[in-house]
Specification:
heterodimer; A: Rossmann fold; eight-stranded mixed β-sheet; 25% strand; B: alpha/beta; five-stranded antiparallel β-sheet; 13 strands; binds adenosine-5'-triphosphate; binds magnesium ion
Chain lengths: 329, 337
């Protein structure tokens, strides 16, 4: 087992959601007791449908969102704990950097590319300012942007170029971990493939660790070593990518993988066997929160939440796969 | 020409005056749609897919200029239809499903009001008949407790349910043609599969023609009968779905197919193909093949290429200086690399 770069222990995040004027608030458990391990030098994929809590997880790991309970550790040291609070935000930023989905809104339109990429060095006052220029040009070169773009503005660049700028800005800090939240979702496929290739190259060159959040399972399958599947705030299945994609077990994972439309004209549109009852995150279903849509639902599923069971490097949370056989009956 | 065609379009062009000059976002596309058939128009952002569909529906921006050698819908030449006649076609015989249902559903009215309104305006004033049709269709698109949904507002539904309501709404008057512009792009993969499955079933049942616009080659492969690959306002390749995917001939089509990670095909972590470069500016006088600045096989001929497609068989055609044999060879060679 390789060293851990970043890990969460039983992390939850509850938002108080307003129910309208004078109606008070109700809690929404965006993340509900998640323990996730991100091994050093690996790519961990995080998948699941819209609203399941992926971005909230990303924000917690980046120190941008305070969890309601649970710990976040970097290596062996606690960097967030209920007692200690967050480590200094700046310290987190030196080790963990984000690449977000939207290359259009995540770059300041009034600043030049040079200034955008250089900003982290200035904020953290890293090294000798006379060397910053060289650092900026080196990193632009690394992400495949010509020197001349340094004086351009984001509006003068294509979507793919802007995402390269976002990557350069994340990497100039020489982070250990990069949290990529839908890094190619806003891009055309011809640009997506260039960015994915670039992320692969950089990972090998710099020994980076990625958390890759994407709703595109083909992208995750291509990039990730390990994959966690989230449903309504919980990780319901987690395994090595080979294991998970070759032999998915959780009914939700199966439905998710079954929905991937590979460009194979001899196949039609698959039937997901998923119901159309969409869960309300403020008032989640009883028992297993997936049970109303599950094609393999049993009696117990609406009554009792399944416990995680771990076997041979795979975690699964489903009554059909409880290690204690007695619980299935 | 087949008597089964409900739509025939020839040499459709859209021009839009902009400050820099004249923009030519759609530059002569031609296609037909037969009853029960799905035509997919695929291409990257900005290639003119949406403007093509808006041109068909008569919904182009006011400043845009539309020309065509032919635009026959159900045997009628609709090129000179005034807005009043187009409005009577739209939503009735020719229905549209947009990407984001919230832009076409009115947040201020209930689902029921919106579903019944088109029906009462165009088919019958009878309210209970309209209501029965709305409930029938909501059930058809897989919405449970349909009757009680009629009094709900769009914002009370999830994205997947709203898209189902949009589909039900487009079917209210029994259209002959459905134009769906990225109907599942904003949805989760599981819901995308459900919606596409549903569209295919309904299309079969009601024998409608469908034009499905998407940038997703996976969607195209699974639902299309016919495919049009657009690049910079023109069709660079067209043909039956199987032929285009099995034997892509235009370097752009072949290039796009190499960009997508295909589980089982591309080794995990291996290099994906790419189409370097960016789309050209479509303002002013345009000549030759618009893909040439991104094409590995470009030569000086491409600067003046006429745009006449090379036809293979079975409607499979591509617009390129390469012969079909050369094109097939280059597509295959790069496929291995
Ligand atoms: N600041 C907030 N206040 C209240 N609720 C929030 C807040 N941020 C997120 N949520 C809710 O928490 C849940 C998880 O949201 P999150 O953005 O993490 O989902 P996601 O998995 O990233 O979805 P997507 O794929 O759409 O990006 C959602 O129900 C969302 O509405
Ligand atoms: N009202 C308008 N005025 C000027 N230019 C326009 C207008 N509408 C569209 N365009 C331009 O015409 C071109 C084609 O636009 P269109 O919306 O058809 O693209 P698309 O293929 O649907 O792309 P996407 O996949 O991003 O939806 C684009 O370059 C766009 O910027
Ligand atoms: Mg998100
Ligand atoms: Mg469009």
């Amino acid at each position: 087992m390789s060293e851990t770069a970043l890990r969460t222990v039983d992390v939850s995040c509850v938002f108080e959601v307003s129910q309208g004027f004078m109606k008070g608030t109700k809690p929404l458990r965006a993340v509900n007791g998640v323990s996730l391990n991100i091994p050093k030098g690996r790519v961990v994929g995080l998948v699941g449908e819209s609203g399941c809590g992926k971005s909230t997880m990303a924000n917690i790991l980046l120190g941008l969102q305070k969890p309601t309970s649970g710990d976040v550790m970097s290596g062996d040291s606690l960097y967030y704990g209920q007692q200690t609070g967050y480590l200094d935000r700046k310290k987190i930023a030196r080790r963990i950097q984000p690449i977000f989905q939207d290359p259009y809104s995540s770059l300041n339109p009034t600043k030049t590319i040079h200034s955008i990429v250089c900003l982290p060095l200035r904020i953290h006052n890293i090294g000798d300012p006379s060397k910053w220029d060289k650092k900026v040009y080196d990193i632009l070169d690394l992400v495949g942007l010509p020197k001349r773009v340094a004086q351009s503005y984001p509006s003068q660049m294509s979507g793919g170029q802007r995402q390269r700028v976002a990557i350069a800005r994340a990497l100039i800090m020489k982070p250990e971990v990069v949290i990529c939240d839908e890094p190619t979702s806003a891009l055309d496929v011809s640009v997506q493939s260039q960015i994915l290739n670039l992320l692969q190259d950089l990972r090998q060159e710099l020994g980076l660790t990625y958390l890759l959040i994407s709703h595109n399972l083909a992208v995750v399958e291509h990039m990730a070593d390990r994959v966690a599947v989230m449903y309504l705030g919980r990780i319901v299945e987690e395994a090595d990518a080979n294991t998970l994609f070759d032999d998915p077990r959780h009914p939700y994972t199966k439905a998710l993988l079954g929905s991937v439309l590979t460009p194979d004209p001899s196949l039609g549109v698959p039937d997901t066997h998923l119901g159309t009852v969409f869960p309300n995150p403020i008032d989640p279903p009883s028992g297993c929160s997936f049970h109303p849509r599950c094609s393999e639902c049993m009696d117990i599923c609406s009554k009792k939440a399944p416990k995680p069971s771990v076997e041979g490097g795979r975690m699964i949370e489903c009554h059909r796969y409880q290690t204690n056989e007695a619980e299935v009956a | 020409m087949s008597g089964d065609n409900i739509l025939e379009v020839q040499n459709l062009k859209v021009d839009i005056p902009v400050t820099a000059g004249m923009l030519h976002p759609v530059r002569g596309v031609s296609f037909t749609v037969a009853r029960g058939e799905t035509l997919c128009i695929v291409g990257e952002s900005g290639c003119g897919k949406s403007l093509t569909s808006l041109a068909l529906m008569g919904l182009l921006p006011k400043t845009a200029i539309r020309t065509a050698d032919r635009m026959d819908f159900l045997g009628q030449d609709i090129r000179d239809f005034k807005e009043r006649r187009m409005a009577a076609l739209r939503g009735v015989k020719m229905a549209m499903i947009f990407q984001e249902p919230m832009t076409s559903l009115n947040p201020a009215y209930t689902i029921g009001n919106q579903l019944m309104e088109v029906y009462r305006r165009h088919i019958s004033k009878n309210g209970s008949e309209a209501r029965a049709r709305a409930i029938f269709l909501l059930e058809k698109v897989g919405i449970s407790a349909a009757a009680s949904r009629l009094s709900q507002y769009p914002h009370q539904l999830s994205g997947g349910l709203r898209q189902r309501v949009m589909i039900a709404m487009s079917l209210m008057c029994g259209p002959d043609l459905i134009i769906a512009d990225e109907p599942t792009t904003a949805l989760d993969v599981t819901i995308q599969a459900q919606i596409l499955h549903l569209l295919a079933e309904l299309q079969d049942e009601f024998e409608m023609g469908m034009i499905l616009i998407t940038h997703d080659l996976g969607v195209v492969a699974r639902v299309a009968d016919q495919v049009q690959v657009m690049y910079a306002g023109t069709t660079v390749e067209e043909g039956p779905c199987q032929a285009v995917f099995d034997n892509p001939l235009h370097p752009y089509t072949a290039g796009l197919l190499r960009c997508i990670p295909v589980p089982g095909k591309a080794k995990r972590g291996s290099k994906l193909g790419s189409v370097p470069g960016i789309v050209p500016n479509l303002v002013g006088d345009l000549q030759g093949c618009m893909f040439r600045n991104r094409c590995a096989h470009a030569s000086s001929i491409c600067e003046t290429l006429s745009g006449e497609p090379t036809r293979i068989d079975d409607g499979h055609a591509f617009t390129c200086r390469l012969t079909p044999e050369e094109a097939a060879k280059t597509a295959a060679v790069q496929g291995v690399a």
